[in-house]
Amino acid sequence: MTQKHTTPDGLVIVDKPSGFTSHDVVAKMRGIARTRRVGHAGTLDPMATGVLVLGVERATKLLGHLALTEKEYLGTVRLGQNTLTDDAEGEIISSADASGITREAVDAGVAKLTGDIMQVPSKVSAIKINGVRSYKRAREGEEFEIPARPVTVSSFAVYDVRAAVAEDGTPVLDLVVSVVCSSGTYIRALARDLGADLGVGGHLTALRRTRVGPYKLDSARTLDQLQQDLKVMPVAEAAAAAFPRWDVEERRARLLINGVRLEMPEEYAGSGAVAVFGPGGRLLALVEEQRGKAKSLAVFA
């Protein structure tokens, strides 16, 4: 256990509360950990809850590489209403009776949004268009287009379909869904596009992120719990969980620390970031293979 008066060094897996931005959580963690050196591995919308990976001190070096890993979500998609933000935070801009939508039609629509797809991010998002955040342009009433980009939806499953009546009296369908997807995928854009395909509109009413890479909800803690007892995952343990591991002996460890580009075993070719460990399980660096040699991404030793 880390004592409160010391500055921890590692990853913190937070169960983000609804209503907090990712930056709000970072600010809160700076107070809890008593350091400015805190960052996050990919944002989570204010409405959403669940896994938000934070890095404290040296672990901030891992974050850019962790942000690229696969994510998993549980959510609720409402068919029958479009909103300005593609989720329940925005005002309703259109409604349509969704009571006639069959389960077969839902499954067919979901299938079209599974696999390698081109997705247009939500307009009220942090995507930058010519250097300006998309949500800023949207709030100022500007007309603009966001280019579609490739994302991978490994799994998109519907667990339950519930008929309901919205506050404005519209018959709607609420779908309980799970999604496993690549970094950069907008779940609310999936809800919007599913509703558009079915001709009734759709938006996201609830979202909980249950996994970021190897880090799952069962290891996440609320901000209140962390305020009482700040436990961090040591940098070496976090790197070993998230990246392929390459162990080197003392001689090569010294060379690597001194900036020498070591020859990498062929098994790591194309692996992306690889965690290099020296004797005694000491984390030395994150590297990637480049022309057969180890190019440093971050050094920890």
UniProtKB/TrEMBL annotation:
GO MF = RNA binding; tRNA pseudouridine(55) synthase activity
Name the job this protein performs: Responsible for synthesis of pseudouridine from uracil-55 in the psi GC loop of transfer RNAs.
Active site positions, chain numbering = D45 (nucleophile)
Q: State the UniProt keywords alphabetically.
A: Isomerase, tRNA processing
Q: Which domain of life is it from?
A: Bacteria
Q: Which GO terms describe its biological process?
A: mRNA pseudouridine synthesis; tRNA pseudouridine synthesis
Q: What sequence ranges are listed for the domain tRNA pseudouridine synthase II TruB subfamily 2 C-terminal?
A: 243-300
Q: What is catalysed by this protein?
A: uridine(55) in tRNA = pseudouridine(55) in tRNA
A Pfam family annotated for this chain is: TruB_C
Could you identify this protein by its name? tRNA pseudouridine synthase B
The tRNA pseudouridylate synthase B C-terminal domain, residue ranges:
188-229
Q: Give the gene that encodes this protein.
A: truB
Q: What is its EC number?
A: 5.4.99.25
Family of the protein in this entry: Belongs to the pseudouridine synthase TruB family. Type 1 subfamily.
Using the record's annotation, list all stretches that form the Pseudouridine synthase II N-terminal domain.
Answer: 31-187
Claim: Transmembrane helix is one of the keywords in the record: no
In the UniProt record, does the keyword Isomerase occur? Answer: yes
